[in-house]
Design brief:
The chain is of the alpha+beta class. It has three helices and five strands. The protein starts with a helix and ends with a helix.
């Protein structure tokens, strides 16, 4: 006589499989959003006709930082990080700017590889956070802001 246990296992496996498929689609959607924003950011110096906005190397470091944070937030916490606007910052740096009501976050990736990245965020000016970090490492402070 068969027991209900195999059916339960099958149902759990099916639910887990459907959940993984949904997660995969969500992550794929986020990768597409990121790709579109990267393509837009790569066109900025060409659109403005100036090579001095930021270098491809600085942009690549900003993208690597962003990808690492998006992937880790998803893998570790199941959080879909919002997509920032990638644009030129001061002194040939790259700014990553998130504006999601009620908060804003700005991360600046400097042109120099020997300089720390900086960030500033606020929640309608009630709560503020700022700091600096090595842009080649995962920043838990930035990640915490993205998880709000």
């Amino acid at each position: 006589m068969a027991t209900a246990m195999p059916a339960l296992d099958y149902e759990q496996e099916q639910c887990a499989s459907e959940s993984e498929a949904g997660s995969s689609l969500l992550l794929q959607s986020q990768r597409q959003e990121l790709h579109a924003e990267i393509q837009r950011a790569k066109s900025i110096p060409k659109v403005h006709g100036r090579e001095g906005l930021y270098s491809e190397e600085t942009l690549d470091r900003a993208i690597a930082f962003l990808r690492a944070h998006i992937e880790r937030l998803w893998q570790s916490y199941g959080v879909k990080a919002p997509m920032p606007v990638i644009g030129p910052g001061p002194n040939r740096s790259v700014d990553l700017f998130w504006e999601t009501p009620p908060w804003q976050l700005l991360v600046n990736i400097p042109a120099s590889t020997n300089t720390l990245a900086t960030f500033y965020g606020h929640d309608q000016n009630r709560q503020k956070i700022k700091g600096s970090f090595d842009p080649q490492t995962f920043s838990f402070s930035v990640a915490a802001c993205l998880m709000v």
